Amino acid sequence: MMTGLAPVLRTATTALGSISPTPRLDAELLLAHALGIDRSAMLLRQHDLCAPDSFGALLARRAADEPIAYITGTQAFWDLELHVTPDVLIPRVDSETLLEAAIDWFASNEAPSRIADLGTGSGALLLAALSIFPNARGYGMDASQAALAVARSNAERLGFADRAEFAHRDWTKTGWHVELGVFDLILCNPPYIEDGKQLAPMVSAHEPHNALFAGADGLDDYRLLIPRLGALLDPRGVAFFEIGYNQAESVQRLASDAGFLTELHHDLAGNSRVIRFSLGIKE
Known about the structure:
Blueprint: E1 2-3, H1 6-16, H2 23-35, H3 39-44, E2 50-51, H4 55-63, H5 68-72, E3 74-77, E4 80-83, H6 96-106, E5 114-118, H7 124-132, E6 137-142, H8 145-157, E7 164-168, E8 183-188, H9 201-204, H10 220-232, E9 233-242, H11 248-257, E10 261-266, E11 272-278
Parallel strand pairs: 5-6, 5-8, 6-7, 8-9
Antiparallel strand pairs: 1-2, 3-4, 9-11, 10-11
Helix pairs in contact: 1-2, 2-4, 6-7
């Protein structure tokens, strides 16, 4: 062990400088994880703490481009601290645009009582929505049993188990939508990356490809999902889908062909990020 964390953090920051845009933050998060305390507490006590031997192995994993979230097993999303594994995509701040768009809509409409998350992964969107709408119940579906195990674990740990149901359903299979009933709010972050597109090694080597890629133009899953939305939405309900930055026109055309009205929402960087689907019926 080395006494004091400052020299350890300096060395680790230098080691991560070539692979991370935030090497100092990464080093601090990994060291806090190795110490078993949160980052703020570590920084307050950095002069009297010692780096544990386990930190070296964690640093080596990050230097090999493994995402921080998979190393620590946690990722912050909305106001939740989620557990994540390589079986699920790492929730990203851009996806919070879905929740912000839903809040805007329901500010002038009756709050949802039944929420669905199609392709729930870690449960991030569903559990965040349940925290926003405390009287709602939620349904999360996913084609991956391993992902559902992560989502259920998060629901239990965060206190949403009595309001969240999870089920194994695959929207590439016939009849996936049968007997689900209708929802006031549907959230979905489907795969939307074009097959063969080059991604950062941190993503391509570690995150689940079946949650990333969606055919030659990245639209395969929208083509499967959008025609079924009418059967799943309450007549006054809304759906919010995440899209790629260059897919707004294509997805809105698919929505129009299926009889939906749409509205485009942008993320904090100004990129096209979310499309709202509705049937045009409003109080």
